[in-house]
Write a structure and sequence with these properties.
By secondary structure, the chain is α+β, with helices and mostly antiparallel strands. It has helices at residues 2-21, 31-50, 54-58, 78-94, 177-197, 224-231, 234-237, 239-243, and strands at 61-68, 75-76, 98-101, 106-110, 113-123, 129-142, 145-155, 166-174, 201-208, 214-221, 247-257. It is globular, with a radius of gyration of 28 Å.
Length: 263
């Protein structure tokens, strides 16, 4: 019995020491090495893309990644991403286009997740720049390295507008800086969703000037009739009343036909 009690004391002491020691230490993290590894992913992407190696581009993505390129539906999963880059890289190479990244990017790392944002240019075979844009890449630590799990990029240029379409330009002066912010909040929460649902709507860009408090938007539509239908819709009819307290003076709304010079 005495030996049993001694054994209990030993076990209790061991448990107490284990509790004081805390959980076992995880693998040591080297922040500098992680950042260097994360920053190496996108240069590898650009190098493989410009070499016409779509398979190597796709290999930078995790099997459960989501790719959101401009102008096409998102590609989810390894098979869809491989198919996308097989076609996209080949098309760019045939057109003589190449991507170049601005070396000044922003990188953040939190545990097993990392992200990088930056800018790029698209250059023609003669070296001229045909487009500029920005990208956001999210990576995860996988099998001791970093794989892309979310990726999106888009152009700075507005989408093209076909001949026969119209542009609607809306502008007003906000009554104050706070009113201008409230107007843009209304855009985010209500107005933009109405545009997205409207018949004949193509795209919209919003603008603000903090100095003059000028506020407004430019939108593209298939026709003037589509604009009129939008303005008379039940969803939009309540918007002018919500904007009126935020404005100094009246809102100016104009619709202009788009002229496309012959090629």
């Amino acid at each position: 019995m005495q030996q049993f009690r001694r054994a209990l004391v030993v076990v209790a002491g061991a448990l107490a020491l284990a509790a004081c020691a805390g959980p076992p230490a995880g693998p040591k993290v080297d922040p500098a090495a992680d950042e260097a590894a994360v920053r190496a992913v996108n240069p590898a992407w650009f190098k493989a893309y410009n070499a016409g190696d779509g398979a190597s581009v796709a290999a930078l993505y995790a099997d459960d990644a989501l790719l959101s390129p401009p102008g096409v539906p998102a590609a989810r999963g390894g098979a869809a991403i491989r198919e996308f880059f097989a076609q996209d890289v080949a098309a760019s190479k045939a057109a003589g286009l190449s991507f170049a990244a601005d070396p000044s990017t922003d990188v953040g790392i939190s545990g097993d997740l990392a992200w990088e944002t930056g800018r790029f240019t698209v250059n023609a075979a003669d070296g001229s720049t045909v487009d500029t844009g920005k990208f956001t890449t999210v990576m995860a630590r996988r099998d001791g390295g970093w794989k892309i799990i979310r990726d999106t990029w888009n152009s700075d240029a507005a989408p093209p507008v076909a001949a026969g379409a119209v542009l609607r330009i809306v502008r007003f002066t906000s009554s104050s800086g706070d009113a201008q912010q409230a107007a843009m909040k209304l855009v985010d929460e209500e107005i933009h969703a109405l545009y997205e649902k409207a018949r004949g709507f193509r795209w919209v860009k919003y603008f603000t000037d903090a100095k003059t408090l000028e506020t407004g938007s430019v939108s593209a539509w298939d026709s003037a009739a589509d604009v009129e239908a939008f303005l008379q819709s039940e969803g939009y009819k309540r918007i002018p009343g919500k904007l009126k307290p935020l404005m100094k003076g009246a809102m100016i709304s104009s619709v202009y036909p788009v002229h496309a010079p012959p090629k």
